[in-house]
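Feature request disguised as a bug: please show the residue count (84) next to DUF4212 domain-containing protein in the output. Example input:
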Amino acid sequence: MQHDSNGYWKATLGLLTKILVIWFVVSFGAGIMFADALNGIKLGGYPLGFWFAQQGSIYIFIALIFYYAKKMGDIDRQFDVHED
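Example output, currently without the count:
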């Protein structure tokens, strides 16, 4: 158990940075920038770039919410600031 507030915030900001980068790459990158390249692949009969722009980025966002909650719980326990 660590009691370092700077370490806690460093771990928290590191997690947020990783999640925001993934969110940006999926929503803007796959849905807009690389959509033409991804449209050659079909998913459920729809071009993959279109799928990411319409539905895929939402699914990834929801998965990131659950991942964030799990990892923040781990970080809170690591630094002994958990609520349970």
